[in-house]
Amino acid sequence: MKLLVSLFHTSDLNTLCVFDENFNNIKFFGYKDFNNAKGIALFDNRIFVAHKNTEGECFVVIYSKEKFKIIQKISLPETKDIHSILIKDHKLFVISSGTNEIHVYKLIDILKLDRIYPTERIQPIKDCNVLVDEFHFN
Fold it and tell me: What are the pLDDT tens digits along the chain (138 aa)?
């Protein structure tokens, strides 16, 4: 068994860490322009990681599961302050906590584009006195 942990709010370039079942560090990895890894989701042999770069732009960066090398990075220009992500039913669900929305993307589109826009926006909290950054997936 391996455990994948994201280390956000760090200045280190390596923001993801793999541990074994005894919590021994196996490998640190990351991408030089993204030091704010947040949500993680697995699909096939790929690791999808929600990242925010130093300018605040949001991306999903895809790494290989075996070698932890970057495969692709996809810009999500409508997402503000990306947090948790979830893959279900061939869709990627992204928390945009800066807008208090869930952005939904077709997985097939993500795997072939470098910039993508949501096919659906869900606002689970409507007509309430809610501040920005109020919810996340668990």
Answer: 788 877 666 555 557 778 888 888 888 777 666 667 788 899 989 999 998 887 889 999 999 988 888 899 999 999 998 888 999 999 999 999 888 889 999 998 888 888 888 888 887 666 556 566 566 555
Is 61 in contact with 34 (CB distance < 8 Å)? Answer: yes
Give the SS3 label for residue 109: helix
Q: Cβ(90)–Cβ(106) under 8 Å?
A: yes
Collapsing DSSP states into helix, strand and coil, what is residue 47? strand
Q: Are 39 and 83 in contact (CB under 8 A)?
A: yes
What tokens were used for 92? 């990627």
Helical residues (DSSP H) of the chain, grouped into ranges: 107-110
Taken in order 28, 78, 76, 42, the sign of the CA dihedral is positive
Pick from 80, 76, 120, 84: nearest CA to 98: 80
Distant-in-sequence, close-in-space partners of 16: CB < 8 Å, separation ≥ 6: 4, 5, 6, 7, 28, 29, 30, 37, 40, 47, 49, 63, 68
